[in-house]
């Protein structure tokens, strides 16, 4: 496929084979690591800071909210699962609850 791309870019066909071999030699180590040696999962700590605002349009009042927390992130191949417990640092508090649990799942494309 690379040889055909080089030909379509104007390189003579007899020069494409050595150029393709050189490019493959350059990236072989990285490709081998990803395919054979890279772990299929990763566990990492998270530090999360969230900021937002609430506005009451009719009353003209507003409140800024700030929360900070810690958690864990688990990546399995191309899916990330993140869980954390942020605590409200400033802003309105409902029924005295300053903490909540958060869970997020994101699937990333390999291509």
How would you characterize this protein structure?
By secondary structure, the chain is an alpha+beta fold. It has 2 domains: 2-37, no CATH class; 41-107. The protein has 2 helices and 4 strands, in the order ααββββ. The protein has helices at 2-8, 13-37; strands spanning 41-55, 62-76, 79-90, 102-107. A 4-stranded antiparallel sheet has the order 1-2-3-4, with no helix packed on it. A hairpin with a 6-residue loop joins strand 1 and strand 2.
- Indicate how many domains the architecture comprises: 2
* Helix percentage range: 25-40%
Main sheet makeup:
4 strands, antiparallel
Count of β-strands: 4
What is the rounded Rg?
A: 25 Å
The proportion of strand residues reads: 35-45%
Number of helices: 2
Order of strands in the sheet with the most strands?
1-2-3-4
- Compute the average pLDDT: 83
Shape: elongated
Helix and strand run: HHEEEE
> How far is the first residue's CA from the last residue's CA?
17 Å
Low-confidence segments, given as residue ranges, are: none
Q: Helix- and strand-based class?
A: alpha+beta
Quick recap:
29% of the residues lie in helices and 43% in strands. The chain is α+β, with helices and mostly antiparallel strands and 111 residues long.
Task: Give the key terms.
111 residues, alpha+beta, 4-stranded antiparallel β-sheet, 2 helices, elongated
Could you outline the blueprint of secondary structure elements for this entry?
Blueprint: H1 2-8, H2 13-37, E1 41-55, E2 62-76, E3 79-90, E4 102-107
Antiparallel strand pairs: 1-2, 2-3, 3-4
């Amino acid at each position: 496929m690379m040889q055909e791309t080089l030909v379509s870019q104007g390189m003579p066909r007899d020069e494409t084979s050595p150029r393709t071999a050189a490019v493959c030699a350059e990236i072989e180590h990285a490709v081998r690591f990803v395919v054979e040696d890279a772990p299929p999962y990763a566990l990492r700590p998270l530090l999360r800071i969230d900021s937002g605002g609430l506005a009451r349009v009719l009353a003209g009042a507003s409140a800024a909210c700030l929360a900070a927390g810690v958690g864990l992130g688990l990546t399995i191949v191309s899916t990330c699962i993140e869980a954390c417990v942020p605590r409200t640092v400033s802003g309105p508090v409902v029924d005295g609850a300053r903490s909540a649990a958060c869970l997020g799942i994101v699937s990333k494309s390999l291509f």
